[in-house]
Amino acid sequence: MYKLDFVTKTFHKGQMNVIALNDVNLDIADGEWLAVQGRTGHGKTTLLYTLGALDRPTSGTVEFDGQDLSRLTEAQLTQIRASSIGFIFQTFNLIPTLSALENVESALIPLGVKTDERRDRAARTLADLGLGNRLRHLPAELSGGQQQRVGIARALVKEPRVLLADEPTGNLDEDTRDEIISLLEKLWQDHGLTLVIVTHDTSVARRAQRIATVSHGKVTFRTQEG
Amino acid sequence: MFFLTYLRRELRHRARQGLVIAVGLAVGIGLVVVVTAAADGVRNAQAAVLHALYGVGTDITVTTPGGKAPSHTSGSGAFDSPGQNAQHVDQLGAEIGLVDESFVSRIAHLHDVAATVGGLADLTDTSLTIPSLKQLGPGGKPPASALNPVEFSVDAIDTAHTQLGPYASGTLSSGRGFRASDAHAYVAVVDYDYAAAHKITAGSSVTVAGHRFTVIGISRQPQGGGASDVYIPLAVAQQLGVGPFGASLHGMVDTIYATAASAADIATVQQEIQALLPSATVSTSSSLASAITGSLSSASSLANDLGRWLAIAVLGASFAVASLLIMAAVGRRTREFGTLKAIGWRSRRIMSQVMGESLVIGAAGAIVGTALGLGGAAVINAIAPTVSATVGLVPGSPAPENVSFNGSGSHTTPAAGYDQTVAVHMSAPVTISVIILAVVLALAGGIIAGSFGSWRAARLDPATALSRVE
After folding, report:
1. Burial class (CB in 10 A: 0-12, 13-18, 19+), B102
2. Per-block average pLDDT, block size 10, for chain A (226 residues)?
3. Is the pLDDT at B459 greater than 90, yes or no?
4. How far apart are CA B156 and CA A8, in angstroms?
5. Which one of B35, B61, B376, B468 has the lowest number of neighbouring Cβ atoms within 10 Å?
6. What are phi and psi of B336, to 5 degrees?
7. CATH architecture of A2-223
8. Which site among A12, A54, A84, A88 would you substitute to test the B interface, given the most B Cβ atoms closer than 10 Å to its Cβ?
């Protein structure tokens, strides 16, 4: 799925250069569940955004399904994000003026799916995640766990190849956290997705197949058994 | 449709801000509508003044200056000196320069002249009683009644050609107008206001130059003055009237009206007539328009200069504020747009969303602005302020004179000033083109504001946008 070779990402802040990723080499297999841990500011989110074609590396190559993302145009990257990559955010990032159903539909808009089919797919995805009776609710009318389920539905509805989750349980209480992680685990198993989760939570990370630790822009690994 | 749903929800969510932007645009639009309507009203008022003075269809007016009336102590030739008995005199007099009527056809034959007509435009009928010698007081002072001659203005019309000149501007409110067959008849058309003041109706009669004229119609002239009290046939006036110093009016006119073949020919025709009549005053409607002073002229400057620039400044400011507010709104939605980009939305789609919201706000501004403009114009129309137009040296107007009497006859001395001041009521007509202009401006404002916002949204880097803490 992914092959990162000597990927470096440098941010220029005035006179200072901040090296967020430093010669990262990383392979992620199809269908693998990788957890990414590390201290704040050490490059976890930058790594996630690089995998998600949201950020281009300063140097190195990022291969996704054989394509070097660093060589693609912005339009091509947008198309890959639209069709193949699902994002789940810590703060849910739902559109506040759209209902749960419409938020999930928004992921299908770039794919040009017709209205009826779009609505139908969005409704089924929400129903699969236990939100069949919350379709018309606005985000402000949903609990944190429910909002994150909507976020997950939005990521899943387009049947992506990979799910990238940035601290998906960071804003949730312990019970809801377990609920969400269990849900992601089930989806990973059922859909054969490649799942990359950035998390501070070791209990969450331990459920993944492999744990990557990012420290000062460098990546090291631990493999989980079972 | 998702686009409309998102747009509608977002506008409702930010209704207050949208309202502020729309009202800002509306104020600018409303001011443009009011100023444009006021400018149109001023132009209409100027046209009314010109039409009243000139008549519909007249491009050029030709007059000749009259000679100065000398002071005299004996009879002027118009009025006799007091005698043994009191005398009632009713005289129709012309007081400005006369031109041979043959010049009317000579001008008509000039190249680029479409039509001409001559007339006696500034006749005055004066009736008074000259006291007898016995009625004179000490030092030859006449009785009070002799100091108050009754005067009214008379305009002599070529009844075969009534389409030019100030008479042509009037509309009949009762009776009929002149026909060619009335050329030698003792018939008259009376001005509406004069008829009302003197209780004259169609079918009644008026006395002009001591002769009874049947009133065939009552004519209402457009506001702006220049109307005579009584209109009679030219041939009759030439027979009954007297010119300056008692000259005969046979075959004479004091004003020639001409129409050029096209607007482009007016200047050429003016020059040709001037060459034909070097001593004449040949004026066009544009030269008359430029001579208009008074509050109408001030209103014109106010509407066209100050008003226009004020409207442009306010409109520019409202566009700028709208752009800033929409850019700020896009800034507040950074994470939202970053998320949409992350899930695969192209910049173009996000820009169209922002632009759509701006256009709706612009449309709301157009509606409110048009309503404000209509309201402002309605206020002007309700107040209908009166403005005055003063024309120096109105073609064909006689220099006013003061008439006094002593024991040896009448004295005439020129009065100061040649100005004619007329009053017109201002209006502010709102035409469909002004409303279309308002709508176009408001939508343009929405597009300009939306363009700035869209540009900002398009430049958003999704990774940076998602990292923003809101």
Report:
1. exposed
2. 90 82 91 91 89 91 90 92 93 94 96 94 93 95 93 93 91 85 89 91 89 89 63
3. no
4. 101
5. B468
6. -60, -50
7. 3-Layer(aba) Sandwich (3.40)
8. A54
Contacts 24+ apart (CB under 8 A), B235-241: B235/B183, B235/B184, B236/B156, B236/B184, B236/B185, B236/B186, B237/B92, B237/B120, B237/B123, B237/B154, B237/B156, B238/B120, B238/B156, B240/B92, B240/B208, B240/B209, B240/B211, B241/B92, B241/B93, B241/B94, B241/B120, B241/B123, B241/B156, B241/B209
- Interface predicted TM-score of the whole assembly (ipTM), two decimals: 0.92
Question: Which residues 129-188 on chain A approach chain B with CB closer than 8 angstroms?
Answer: 154-155, 158
Instruction: Report the distance separating Cα B26 and Cα B416, nearest Å.
Output: 51
| Domain residue spans of chain B | 2-45+297-385+428-467, 65-279
Contact A95 B462 (CB under 8 A): no
pTM for this prediction:
0.67
Vertex A136 angle, CA A130 and A137, to 5°: 80
User: What residue type is assigned to position B147 of the chain?
Assistant: L
Flag whether residue A9 sits within 8 Å of chain B, measured between CB atoms: no
